[in-house]
Design goal:
Number of helices: 9
Largest sheet: 8 strands, mixed
CATH topology of the largest domain: Rossmann fold
CATH architecture of the largest domain: 3-Layer(aba) Sandwich
Distance between the termini: 12 Å
Strand content: 15-25%
Shape: globular
Mean pLDDT: 88
Order of helices and strands: EEEHEHEHEHHHEHEHH
Helix content: 25-40%
């Protein structure tokens, strides 16, 4: 993984303000939307987004509201509504998209696919647990530690906890991570904790019945898991594979929850094969790349 630098893009309207969006490729091609994890921002998708664009796809990567270059929430809202407004602003309102959710944004993506089946051609969930499924003990204990550290005013301790839980995972130490990945995660976490103190609203995404509605999913689904991720991700993958129709699975070695950053080639391979099998426009093979985000 290389250095993470400044990303470029545009700022597009949503229901409550502006989202910062990075756009790649020919806007007349099949559109792909990549949604980031809660411990990341849109920059994390850069290597994969560029590769998808090189393959002939149109790729949109927003910073979700309250993340990256997008503004803080100014009241209660839904990320899914922001994504729909972004699509309309980019003229992607007449054809269904390939939608990719990662971790937290898997909930957003699944909600959107269930609520607006006409807008989603295919859905991919990367290291995601649907709402309504229990979290593993490792995740619950991490959240408890985070709450205790923040209550004690130890923000740096909470950041270290985030890196250990989501960056390294329960089966590795932080020393297994590239220094650039640790620095990226620390920067995102500091920004998130600072923004959390001044946010005046919260995201209302997360249909608690989504786990019971998986059989209603109309589009093909790709489920991506990672070797060192928390146990609930594998459990979720098994539930998704049996409850949802038209499911493909992929497993990424040598990565934890930030698999798109740790192993962009492997995640990119899985997404290209899946999207290419269903895209409305042609998708060309591309060379693997591990170039980091701008």
């Amino acid at each position: 993984m290389g250095d993470l630098g400044q990303a470029t893009g545009s700022t597009e309207p949503h229901a409550g303000g502006q989202l910062h969006v990075r756009a790649y490729g020919d806007r007349n091609a099949q559109s792909v939307v990549l949604l980031h994890a809660g411990v990341a921002d849109g920059r994390a998708w850069e290597p994969i987004a560029q590769r998808l664009a090189d393959a002939g796809l149109h790729v949109l990567v927003p910073d979700l509201r309250g993340f990256g270059r997008s503004p803080d929430p100014g009241g209660d809202f839904r990320h899914a509504d922001d994504v729909l407004a972004m699509l309309d602003a980019h003229g992607v309102d007449d054809r269904p998209i390939a939608l990719v959710g990662w971790s937290m944004s898997g909930t957003i993506a699944l909600d959107l696919a269930l609520e607006h089946p006409d807008r989603v051609l295919v859905l991919a969930l990367v290291c995601s647990v649907p709402e309504g499924m229990p979290r593993s003990r490792a995740v619950l204990e991490s959240w408890e530690r985070e709450d205790a550290l923040l209550e004690a005013g130890d923000v740096e301790g909470a950041i270290r906890n985030d890196v250990a839980t989501w960056g390294a995972g329960p089966t590795r130490g932080v020393d297994a991570l590239a220094p650039e990945l640790v620095a990226y995660m620390e920067g995102v976490a500091r920004d998130q904790y600072a923004r959390g103190d001044r946010a005046t609203g919260e995201a209302l995404d997360g249909d608690r019945d989504a786990i019971d509605r998986l059989g209603e999913l109309a589009c093909p689904l790709l489920v991506v898991t990672a070797e060192h991720d928390t146990p609930c991700q594998e459990e979720a993958a098994m539930v998704l594979a049996t409850a949802a129709p038209h499911v493909t699975t992929a497993h990424v070695d040598d990565a934890a929850h930030l698999a798109p950053l740790e192993q962009p080639d492997a995640v990119g391979d899985a997404l290209l094969a899946f999207i290419g099998a269903h895209a409305a426009t042609s998708v060309a093979p591309t060379a693997r790349t591990s170039t980091a985000a701008d």
